[in-house]
Amino acid sequence: MRRFLIVLLLLALAGSMIILKKMRIGRVEATYKSCFASQQVLEGATEMYFDDHKEIEKNAGSINELINTRMDDLIQGKYLREGLQDQVQGYFHELPIPKDALPVCHITAVASGTDYTLECSLHGRIDAPRPLTDLLKLANLDSSGNYTAPR
User: What is the pLDDT of residues 96-115, one digit of tens each?
Assistant: First the structure.
């Protein structure tokens, strides 16, 4: 009976380790989806804002000013419910990484010919996402979800 309990305990421990690894990778993948959804929402909000404010020239600079220093204008104008910047920091709280060293998601507008495109410093653009393996490295995770302490 005692051996059975020890074996059962070891199996439970191994199972929980596997689940934790999968959760870490799942969290990194979820931040991708969340960021790209935020980019789409932010793009729609800025389009509506500039449609309503024709006196302001729409370019990458004015969009960056709006989303980086005047996000409250989008919220108060009911273009957005809440700010969308810097949402990823803190999602990896169970890893022994100092909070100020965690990856941060920050969206900016980048000039693209005569128009602009939104791009995240962490995840890239919707049409050109950063590889998942790169994101795992930033969170000090290997491809299996194991935490690897920085050297």
Answer: 566 666 677 888 888 877 78
